[in-house]
Amino acid sequence: MAQAWRDQAAHLGGSTRVLLIGTRPEDEDNALIAWLSRGRHVETAVLSLTRGEAGRNVIGAERNAPLAVVRTAELLAGRERDGAHQYFTRAFDTGALSADADVARAWPADSLLVDMVTVIRAFRPQVIVALVRADSEPDATRRHTARLAAMAFQAAADTGRLPSLATARLPAWQASRLLTRVDSAGASGALTRIDVGEFDRAEGRSYAEIGADIRRLHRTQGPVAAASLGASMRWLRLDSARTGRDPDLFGGIDTTLARLAGANADAGRAAFDSLRMQVVRLAGRARSLDADSLVAHLASVVRLAIAARLELECREASTVPTCGGDAGELALTLNRVRERATTALVGAAGLVVDANAERELVAAGDSAMVQVTVHNGGGQPVVLRRLALMAQGRLSPLVRDTAIALAPGATAHFAAPVRFVVPTRHWWQVNGMQQGTALQRLRVGGAGAPLPSQLLLGEDRLAAAGVEATVVIAGAEVPIQVRPLATRAASAVRGDLRHPVIGVPQTSILLERGAEYERAGMPVDRLFRVFVSNARSSADTVAVSLTLPAGLTADSVSKLVPLPPLSARNVFFRLRGALPAGEHTAEVAARSVAAMAMVDGVAIQPPVVNLGVVINEYAHIPAQHFVRFARDRMESVALRLPARFRVAYIRGTEDLRPAFQQLRLPVQSLDLALLPVADLSAVTAVIVGAGALRGEAALLATPVLRAFMARGGVVLVLPGGRELARSQLFPVPVEQRDPTPDDDVRGARITFVDPGSPLFSQPNVVREAALEEWAGDRSCSVATGLYAGHTVPLVVEDRQRRRVEPSVLVATVGKGRLVYTSLCLAQQLEAAQGGAAKLLVNLVSPWPVARR
Predict the structure, then answer these.
(1) Is the peptide bond before 806 cis (omega within 30 degrees of 0)?
(2) 300, 416, 674, 792: most buried by Cβ count inside 10 Å?
(3) Do residues 321 and 168 lie in contact, with contact meaning Cβ atoms separated by under 8 Å?
(4) Contacts of 171 (CB under 8 A, 6+ apart)
């Protein structure tokens, strides 16, 4: 928004805070957040119990923990636009569950209650809104969240129930109101109505439109419908109130600074009273003052907020005041006023602090040069007092306690190295999972600090590295933070790209795959590729060693690899032998030879490296890094093929070609548009990839596929979009939809409805137990009913058997057959699941007749 600092300057005095609580990113109400944060200038925070690890990913292959990284980045990108804060608990997403008992085992209420109360005592909201309900949610995880929100509302105010020591010594906080989002005005109870369709004339859009635009950053969740113009209501049911039953959202709560007038000591009262008057003046004049005049007023607010805060004897933990009562709220409010005034002041003054690192990956123990530019684009002089690079909590000063004057239009340049001591890790993943639960294990701090500071600060305030400066503007000494520290890369398509700078291991070692197939008993003679890199600015030589399962040998068990500074090499081992059926593991490790040292005549070996860092680029969020272990799971499958077996594959959103190659299946890739002129006389089956039946090409391909089946061919259609309902390929159109968070498809039970079907015996014997080993979602779409003309040999049902979905539909077409499956076969083949390989071959085999 143009000149956003004017809007910030006009709303410095608001001290209302609202916390929204949901189970996963899908629960987020972006229109409501935009209405609160941007429309009403309420300090808003979102607490998501999980990061959405169990959700679908429609744009990539990330699943589970890697998906959590991407979804966290999507949420933070949204928070940059709507101005809210983002918190999480330690819960790992289990997906939708039906039974409350299953959720209670996965997410012990006492642990999550500590997390939620800690966030409430740190953020100190007057109003808490549960985005999920305890009474009508089909998903037990959401019901659990709603119950926890009600418990946390009460427990946050009761140190007898949850002592301050359990929440990083934070004092009790009594929120005034607890509300729950409900579906409509027909819900029972006292209701608050909010119209998020309200039009923001400065933006030229409604808050519903702004929210939909922000929601589009959640690309892993799929497309978002455009918001319609006009009223769009949100209904909030009042569940508990300490300030009466007023239907207004804030229920008569005093949201001005006046309510805190008596909270400060006599010595700080003058500064606080002056601050209040200055904030009131700015509220009426911020939009009319010229920029230089506004700078002087904002500088006064910063000075007064700092002076009033210094008079309060209130310590802080991770920038959160640890005193309670009115003094604690005053301290928190003064901090927020100073932060907002500082942001507005820097914008009005035209001051820019920019940094560009020479590379995005810096080895632990190494450093990289950073160019820092300070530009005064305003009309008043600025004095630079301090300037430093920050990495992992450590400061590297560039300018220290001096006075560098920057006249209007002047630019100053500085250069210094930034140093990383240890590799950067996603803080919630470093300690693994608590045994028997779906909770991340958190590192316990010292006495009185049992929770990490990240839980107090919120995810939006964290960064691996950045720039910190102190400048004097209009007589006010102003601290500035620029995070994250980034490096720039030019792109012909996307322009100026910025990649956050992170610390990485000195040596990184990666395998081409994390899981792959082998054919049991068949001779192996192939190359095995290992990727090893050196992130240091000095040369290294590493020994790369390979450990193989019984049955395989390599041309060498270890190879020496010289690595120049900041370089990477491919290392190839030649594998020979054969593997019996079953699961096997190959592991690779690297050790620096150059770093070996002698101490008192004893060789000190450097540590063994068995993991590497992968950087993935995204169009909608900054580049993200992932840690992978150098371990390859080899699934050796005893696979039988029919006597005549040749398959054409029309690729969809997935890519099954690597799995076909590993399984040594005779499969040729075919473009859908070329199908009408392709020679299918030697082909026995056609696999139509997920979503491939789109556009005009599908209309021309459908008659060809029907004729192919009439002659005896098999067509397998993988789960796709709505185009299936319109397709003429099926004898009876198959209506289906994408799974929602309410569908319990992760870990759901796969049941053979017709165990005698050739699907489970021709040519490979497939048992239910082999499919129970599948990881992640079972169904990638949901058929909405059973259909005449189709047989259903296999279904997916939820854990309570309350919902049964037909997951394999088989129909006879002429001499051949059509098979549609909603199973996530592509995910399972990518993960090298043995049962998936056998099922795939059976799905496209002309039953019966088989050979080895």
Answers:
(1) no
(2) 300
(3) no
(4) 121, 159, 164, 322, 323, 324, 325, 328
pTM of the model: 0.90
Tokens 């496209």 appear where?
844
- Tell me phi and psi for residue 703, to 5 degrees: -60, -35
Answer yes or no: are the C-beta atoms of 94 and 103 closer than 8 Å: yes
pLDDT digit string, tens, across residues 179-194 = 999 988 778 888 999 9
Q: Report phi then psi at 622, rounded to 5.
A: -60, 160
In the three-class reduction of DSSP (H, G, I as helix; E, B as strand; rest coil), residue 274 is classed as helix
Per DSSP bridges, beta strands 316-317 and 320-321 are antiparallel
What SS3 class is residue 531?
strand
- Rounded distance between C-alpha atoms, residue 534 and residue 504, angstroms: 10
HSE at residue 206, side-chain half, CA atoms within 13 A, is 18
H helices within 417-511, ranges in order? 453-457
First and final C-alpha spacing in the chain:
67
3-class SS at 823? Answer: strand
CB 511 within 8 A of CB 632: yes
- Of the candidates 830, 711, 737, 732, the one whose C-alpha atom is nearest the C-alpha of residue 786 is 732
The beta strands (E) that lie in 83-232 are given as 85-88, 127-130, 177-182, 191-195, 199-200, 205-206
Structure tokens at 606: 């450097």
Alpha-carbon distance 349 to 340, whole Å? 14
Strand 205-206 relative to strand 199-200: parallel, antiparallel, unpaired?
antiparallel
Q: Which residues of 820-837 are buried (b: 16+ CB within 10 A; e: fewer)?
A: bbbbbbbbbbbbbbbbbb
Alpha carbon 754 to chain centroid, angstroms? 40
For the stretch 351-374, pLDDT in tens is 999 999 999 999 999 999 999 999
